[in-house]
Amino acid sequence: MPASFRTPRTTGGRRALAAVAALPLLAVVLTSCGYGSAADAKDDKAEVAAGAKKIEGLDEVKIGYFPNLTHATALVGDQEGLFQKELGATKAKYTQFNAGPSEIEALNSKSIDIGWIGPSPAINGYTRAQGENLRIIGGSASGGVKLVVNPDKIKSLDDVKGKKIATPQLGNTQDVAFLNWIKEKGWKVDAESGKGDVSVVRTDNKITPDAYKSGSIDGAWVPEPTASKLVAEGGKAILDEADLWPDKKFVITNIIVSQEFLKEHPKVVEAVLRGSVKTNQWIKDNPEKAKASANAALKEASGKELPAEVIDPAWKSIQTTDDPLAATLDSEAEHAVKAGLLEKPDLKGIYDLKPLNKVLKAEGKSAVDDAGLGVK
Questions:
Q1: Has residue 107 got a pLDDT over 90?
Q2: How far is it, in rounded angstroms, from Cα 133 to Cα 124?
């Protein structure tokens, strides 16, 4: 059984760990682009086909996701009814979340059964529950994170030293990635305060564009669509985080399930995964239609769609994937350890990719690997 999070040795470390455990990941609520803890139930428009049967006799499966582009699989799969098609008469009930911790809480309280979520809350949720609440059962998205700067103040990556750079929040995935990049540059920053050779300014994505326009920050290491919003305001993307990873791939969104639900309803889980795999293929086969579908879903969620100058580049920088890119999740956890935000967690058992690989085989696709972090 995986060990629980180890408490850091210092009071400051404890505060940092608490912050990491409580932080949202990529809660980019489009239009407002803010963080929060609210969850909104969503009526599913997809109709159950005549004569369809319930899988394992289950009335409904409760699915959670964020209304943002890095959750494109869930957005499009919901919007196009692709999950419902695979579920037959078992109704897909959707809830949208604005923050990772609230989705983990919903999973733990059985308010949802399956969810799309980022790596940091998945890691934190798993370790805080001593490996007894969730499994990662699939991948969903890679990429979509950039360092965007004021080109009048920053001409090169070396010019970042001494500047004020925003990240979404202390301990979230982008914050950890930026701290790790700073460390690799040989610069020093106190992870908790953000003070040092670079000033790391933790700023909600909803106000990052305004902070940039006012000059209170010189740039930001942020996910899409915030990165493209900054570019639309005159910023320049001088680094794509994908360029820092092998094969330019790193996990930004996973699929998780409660261990209890996986054990009791394996065929329902397989149906949702089959819907995910087929949605990802549909997105790849129909990129323009998929982009329009995602934007329509965002407009439904927020009341406002993204303009072309934002969604077009943002969409291109995110890759949907069935592969959870498990090795990169382990690396992201190591980056947090190196930054001093947490003690090394034991992630063995966080993955169960057997249902996904069964689905992939049936679809004529290659199996994916758990990097040694799967259940035995």
A1: yes
A2: 11
* Cα–Cα distance, 106 to 98 (Å, whole number): 12
Q: Name the DSSP letter for residue 188.
A: -
Could you identify the residue written with the tokens 């990240």?
167
Handedness of CA 93, 286, 221, 185 (dihedral sign): positive
Q: Which carries the bigger pLDDT value, residue 173 or residue 56?
A: 56
| Sign, Cα dihedral of 258, 91, 106, 311 | positive
d(CA 376, CA 374): 6
User: Percent of the chain, pLDDT > 70?
Assistant: 87
Q: Which residues sit opposite 164 in a β-bridge?
A: 199
Element (H, E) at 122: helix 119-128
Angle of helix 11-22 versus helix 119-128 axis, rounded to 10 = 120
For residue 149, the SS3 value is strand
Neighbours of 361 (CB within 10 A): 11
Q: How far apart are CA 136 and CA 258, in angstroms?
A: 9
Q: Does residue 43 contact residue 79 with C-beta atoms inside 8 Å?
A: no
Q: From CA 125, how far away is CA 133, in angstroms rounded? A: 8
pLDDT tens string 188-206: 999 999 999 999 999 988 8
Q: Which residue has the tokens 């009791």?
A: 264
pLDDT of residue 45: 62
Confidence tier at 173 by pLDDT (50, 70, 90): confident
CA geometry: angle at 21 spanning 174 and 116, to 5°? 65
Name 60's Cβ contacts closer than 8 Å, sequence gap at least 6.
Answer: 90, 91, 92, 93
Q: pLDDT per residue over 277-330, tens digit each?
A: 999 999 999 999 999 999 999 999 888 899 999 999 999 999 999 999 999 999
Do β-strands 60-65 and 91-97 pair in parallel, antiparallel, or remain unpaired?
parallel
Question: Six-digit token pair at 154?
Answer: 């920053």
Q: In this structure, what token pair is assigned to residue 360?
A: 């992939």
Percent of the chain clearing pLDDT 90 (strictly above): 75
**pTM (two decimals):** 0.83
**53: which 2 tokens?**
């049967």
H-type alpha helices, 171-286:
173-184, 208-214, 226-232, 259-264, 266-285
What number of other Cβ atoms are within 10 A of residue 172's Cβ?
26
**257 within 8 A of 114, measured Cβ to Cβ:** yes
Decide: 62 and 112 in contact? Cβ < 8 Å. Answer: yes
